[in-house]
Amino acid sequence: MNPVDLELVKLKRQWQKVVSKNEEKPMLICIGEKHETDLFDGFIKSKLSEDEEGDDIFLLHYQEFNGMKSFGQTLLDEWTEFYEMLKKSEENIPKWELKDPEQAFKTDAYKAFYPLLELKKNFPNIKDSKIYLYIAPLRISDTEELSLWVKEWCRICEMSENKDLKLVWAEHHTHRTLTQIPSAHSFRVEVDIHQLMQNTAAHTNRKKNSPDTDFQQQILIASNHLSKERFKEAEHALKTAVKLAKEQKNKQGEISAYFMLTQAYTADRKKDRAEDTYQTIFEEVEPDSPLEVQMYMNYGSHLLGNSKKSKAEKIFEKAAETAQKIGEYAMAIECYRIIGTLNDTVLTKDKMIRYFEKCLDIAKLMDPSLREQSSLRFVASMLILKYEGDHSKKTILDNEMKTYFGDDWRVSVERPKAR
């Protein structure tokens, strides 16, 4: 059994416990980190497998939520279409009569609930089954309306006193989409992603025992230790990774391991060792390469984190010059954008404008697709603010951006307070 399957088995056991202890609840909400809710989504999808045992029915829906007055109808339309197809292909299909309730509702959640209830009553083979309606809209037009729709589903379910129909939802444990749903039961799914990666690498490569596999293993082990703030253990694994990469002449792997070492030293408050390791990186990295530019940018960020703004600016300048030299224009723009932003003060406004205008010059050399992915829109939107009363410069810049991106090119930028 591979490690992901093992996690799914654990999740299946957890699900069975949650269901058995919350029979009265009309809704179950899985919460966790993104990789954990993604795994839960995979678990729900696995329920559609023909190998799946049990009588429970899982309905999965990823349709967009376009309003609380239409979502229920969207679900019902899909079920009705399937029912009509079934009627044509099979004989003696039980009737499925859809009646509007006499009671008035704020949302159309009833259009999803009552038809499922009717389905259970009329189809003998699912009479004793539980139906789990899992909704995961790919786009939500209004989160408040979605919360109202869900709350009304729960209220209708409780009014019906039916314990076999349940709504299922999954979301991030801190960035919640739904407002508090009193009737629902929330449960946390926890997966140690670093341990999972490590187990997966070991499972995939258990027979190979190659130097490359050993290098990857050390990186995964170090990641796991870092996530748990075990810095000494992480440092040991990373030094081993550096040694293995050198033996393989894997220069990119060596630099990556060194960079992770700087992160470990910084987290462990060993600033001098982090600084020394950055210097080692610049001695070892291939000159005039994208990797060198990236390392300069990482070092610049490290210096800013240690309040060394002046030195950081020089490093970002060096990174930008190297990036231009080798044709990595998006990286050059990003470096000049950072320098400009660092000078967003009343006294250094002219310097900020000068660096942002360098970005405009570089943009002229770029392919349209790369220009689209760069931070040019942000830079230009900030310049429009900084040009203030200079309408001529504003007009020229606006026209230039329209040529690149169309009329709707501007992005929202916060007008900074004067310092």
Distance between the termini: 60 Å
How many beta-strand runs? 5
Sheet with most strands: strand arrangement: 2-3-4-1-5
pLDDT averaged residue by residue: 86
- Mind summarizing the main beta sheet? 5 strands, parallel
Overall morphology: extended
Portion of residues within helices: 55-70%
Order of helices and strands: HEHEHHEHEEHHHHHHHHHHHH
Radius of gyration: 29 Å
Low-confidence stretches: none
Count of runs of 4 or more consecutive helical residues: 17
- Percent strand: 5-15%
Structural class: alpha/beta
Please tell me about this protein's structure:
- With 419 residues, this protein is an alpha/beta fold.
- Helix content is 61%, strand content 7%.
- It is built from 17 helices and 5 strands.
- It has a 5-stranded parallel sheet.
- Helix 5 links the parallel strand 3 and strand 4.
- Helix 6 runs antiparallel to helix 7 and helix 8 runs antiparallel to helix 9.
- The radius of gyration is 29 Å and the shape is extended.
